Amino acid sequence: MKNLLQGVHHFQTQVFPAHRERFSELAQGQAPSTLFITCSDSRIDPSLLTQTAPGELFVLRNAGNLVPAPGWSEGGEAAAIEYAVEALGVRNVVVCGHLGCGALGGLLEPSSVAELPAVRRWLQQHGEETRYRIAQSRVADELPRFAVEENVRGQLERLARYPAVRRRLRSRKHPIELHGWVYDIGAGAVSLLGESGEFERLAA
To answer: What is the DSSP letter of 134?
Structure first.
């Protein structure tokens, strides 16, 4: 906790004064360009990864960067998506998975989360589509990477079924774009889902 409080002190004495005008603007409201859906994993820092400033990303995080099916009433994911798309009018939605995802590990090996009932239930409720997609594939090599990629594809498809998102995808006046990313933490690399349906590594 000491290091966190030291960080707050540094923010208050060094960072905030240097950006006082920007924070004053943010205090009046937000207008993010992007809804960024990613995993709760502590190794992922969306603003650091994208080098964005406060107010640019509306971030939604959960175990496995899962998007509940439209109409799911529990949890805050649906509310956050609807608010970002309808109220804030974000122009982009990014679903960002990552290699070494513990939630996906639990999805592929349920025994690894046997003693974590809440995690097990979350994966059962919202990860079965991903498990099915992976089971139907014939990919044997690099299964962990493929699982992460397939999970991102599945969440994008589910996201597109949300009424608010579907309306914006059809809109010419206020269009929205959906993007799939996979982050390789150890390499600092990001792969983007292309029009071909395959992930391509973004050149440094």
So the answer is: H
Q: What is the pTM of this model?
A: 0.93
Quote the tokens at residue 112.
């690894």
Element (H or E) spanning 5, and its range?
helix 2-10
For 32-201, CATH number?
3.40.1050.10
Kindly report which listed range (56-60, 93-97, 124-128, 131-135) carries the lowest average pLDDT score: 131-135
Q: With CA atoms as reference, report the closest residue to 49 among 183, 177, 156, 202.
A: 183
Q: Which helix (H) or strand (E) holds 37?
A: strand 34-39
Question: Which candidate, 87, 76, 86, places its Cα nearest to that of 37?
Answer: 76
What ranges do the domains of the chain cover? Answer: 1-30, 32-201
pLDDT digits (tens, 9 = 90+) for 19-38: 999 999 999 999 999 999 99
Query: And the tokens for 71?
Result: 């109409």
Opening angle at CA 169, ends 164 and 174, nearest 5: 85
Whose tokens are 């070494």? That residue is: 100
Output the six-digit token pair for 62. Answer: 């959960």
- Please, how many CA atoms are within 13 Å of residue 78, restricted to the half-sphere of its CB? 13
